[in-house]
Specification:
single chain; alpha/beta; eight-stranded antiparallel sheet; binds 6-O-phosphono-alpha-D-glucopyranose
Length: about 600
């Protein structure tokens, strides 16, 4: 949530920052701003997207080799020009960008007002820049020390970067609970919320840890201290990211590119972890703790959004294949209960970004209570990846469309492999079933490709139902969470109200909504509940609902009952979510495009929710 980027070096900073902000726009896009330092600080900020900032900045001379930029997802204060970042200190000397929330801002603000500070915005951020100013003035501190003193007083989450007119050769950044990456070039430095604005210039980086403060200077030096004023010496890492991964590569939207990447990304998630011919599945992250995981009395999974849907599928997978009881929790609820967590529990946290604040907090809580915490994360080096005891990367590559697609199927892939690995070790799966599942798993990428070949048909159906205001998604068993995910995709990007339900629950409420204006999308691929789902379809038809069914290739019975059908190849039932979700992603995508919605940046949403 909120993207920050800063540059200091020999190049013009504004073009680098502007490009960086465009890459970070997935993190928030309700307003944007820059401050460029060149003897004086020039600030331009604007409500709306980065392109609106770019247009507004045309008439301003933004030359200078030091600068900061911000794209915002509003928390405190409405999205407008004034609340947009950067925020400038009362004396005009400092300018600051911030991602996170300063929870005690109102106490700090009152105290600062008492000693003469006046504020122009409604944001928590402005308090921070005034507090730094106060320490600079009162105690005549160096910028990093003034930042340190101010952050000692701040409660909450932050990634910040500050520039100082009187110290034009340095930038100071700091983080706690919100990510900040330092990119190290040749006599130039970058600070950003993630590596995407940096990779074009350097692949050397340091992921700052919580409560670290970095000072970078034009002479090519940097120093990192912590809040306790101790010098830190973190290792420099090599970024494993390619620039083309951040481009649309000919697709109209990132979301479409990411949907189409799934045969490859699922393969990447499996690579080196499975070999059907030789009969093994090994999920590296589990090996060191295998005994503890195998003997877990219970597995708790905590996540948010689409990642929570992956956890729901995993509940079926782990219980059926590994025989371990699973509880699935919304991370945001889990952290604020007093959940009973025992030392023989294993907590699995799932997150694409690895930065979701609630999931991170759930992780910390589980650790405090003595559970082993396993992370399933896409973004390498992210906070969740770093703070778990062990885990697996999903290797899906950068996901930029706000609505998650390839991250979901890569999470499912890793979770399926984990369930298979555990199930086999625990002697839960008969040898022949195990082998069948392994072969079926290896064949999933090819089958996903076949589903993608149905895209034109999905697009046609999208055209038929795009004008409805509601939709119902039904599924059973493994496909119930897929129904939830299909509904979420439609809500997120087309703003159509949609609900996902277990098919049999329809009779307990949603059936009252069904009439000729209600499209009902039914995932009808389960062999185990085939007839039951067929009956549910009849019930919808009897009430004039429009039925769109997702069926197994060759199915004629349900196809004939339905108004429209999309076929997916046959596979083993536990693996069907990997296929059945694809047409639902495409359906949501096409409907959103047809309704003229901004598919990659849907209103009010952000990809990485780093605030509670
Ligand atoms: C936001 C995103 C969703 C995502 C959720 C959890 O709401 O818009 O697409 O599923 O956060 O994010 P995570 O990065 O933890 O998977």
């Amino acid at each position: 949530m909120c993207g920050i980027v800063a540059y200091i070096g020999k190049q013009q900073s504004y073009p680098i920052i502007l490009e960086g902000l465009k890459r970070l726009e997935y993190r928030g896009y309700d307003s944007a701003g820059v401050s460029i330092l060149n003897h004086e600080i020039k600030t331009v900020k604007k409500k709306g997207k980065v392109s609106e900032l770019e247009a507004a900045a045309i008439s301003t001379n933004l030359e200078g080799t030091v600068g900061i930029g911000h794209t915002r997802w509003a928390t405190h204060g409405k999205p407008d020009d004034i609340n947009a970042h950067p925020h400038v200190s009362g004396n005009g000397r400092l300018s600051l960008i911030h991602n996170g929330i300063i929870e005690n801002y109102s106490t700090l603000k009152k105290a600062l007002e008492k000693i003469g500070h006046t504020f122009t915005s409604e944001t928590d951020t402005e308090v921070l820049v005034h507090l730094i100013e106060e320490y600079q003035n009162k105690e005549n501190l160096r910028l990093d020390q003034a930042v340190r003193r101010a952050l000692e007083k701040a409660v909450g989450a932050y990634a910040i970067v500050v520039i100082d007119r009187e110290n034009p050769d340095i930038l100071v950044g700091a983080r706690k609970s919100s990510p900040l990456v330092l990119g190290i070039g040749d006599d130039e430095f970058f600070l950003a919320s993630d590596a995407s604005p940096i990779i074009k210039y350097t692949n050397k980086a340091i992921y700052l840890k919580d409560e670290e403060i970095v000072t970078v200077s034009k002479n090519g030096e940097y120093e990192i201290i912590n809040l306790y004023n101790e010098v830190q010496h973190p290792a420099v890492q090599e970024l494993d990211l390619k620039l083309e991964e951040l481009e649309k590569e000919g697709y109209e939207h990132f979301m479409l590119k990411e949907i189409y990447q799934q045969p490859v990304t699922i393969h990447e998630s499996m690579r080196g972890r499975i070999n059907a011919e030789d009969g093994w599945v090994i999920v590296g992250g589990m090996q060191q703790y295998m005994n503890r995981i195998m003997n877990a009395k219970r597995i708790i999974m905590a996540a948010c959004g689409t990642s929570w849907h992956s956890a729901l599928v995993a509940e079926y997978l782990f219980e059926e294949l590994a025989g371990i009881p699973v509880e699935v929790e919304y991370a945001s609820e889990f952290r604020y209960r007093n959940p009973i967590i025992n030392q023989d529990d294993v907590v699995i946290v799932i997150s694409q970004s690895g930065e979701t604040a609630d999931t991170l907090a759930a992780l910390e809580l589980a650790k405090e209570k003595g559970a082993l915490v396993y992370g399933i994360v896409n973004v390498v080096g992210s906070s969740i990846a770093r703070n778990t005891h062990c885990g697996s990367y999903t290797h899906a590559g950068p996901e930029i469309g706000v609505a998650s697609t390839k991250a979901f199927t890569s999470q499912l892939t890793v979770l399926t492999l984990m369930a298979l690995n555990l199930g086999y070790k625990r002697g839960q799966i008969p040898e022949n079933t195990y082998r069948q599942l392994l072969y079926a798993m290896e064949d999933i990428p090819a089958r996903v490709q076949k589903v993608l070949e149905q895209d034109q048909k999905v697009k046609y159906i999208a055209g038929e139902i795009k004008d409805y205001n509601n939709a119902l998604y039904l599924g059973r068993g493994y496909n119930f969470p897929v129904a939830l995910e299909g509904a979420l995709k439609l809500k997120e990007i087309s703003y159509i109200h949609a609900e996902g339900y277990p098919a049999a629950e329809m009779k307990h409420g949603p059936i009252a909504l069904i009439d000729d204006k209600m499209p009902v999308i039914v995932i009808a691929t389960n062999k185990s509940a085939y007839d039951k789902v067929a009956s549910n379809i009849q019930e919808v038809k009897a009430r004039k609902g429009t039925v769109i069914s997702i069926v197994t290739e060759g199915d004629t019975k349900i196809r004939e009952m339905s108004d429209y059908s999309i076929e997916i190849p046959e596979t083993e039932e536990p693996l069907t979510p990997l296929l059945s979700v694809i047409p639902l992603q495409l359906l949501a995508y096409h409907i959103a495009v047809m309704r003229g919605c901004n598919v990659d940046q849907p209103r009010n949403l952000a990809k990485s929710v780093t605030v509670e």
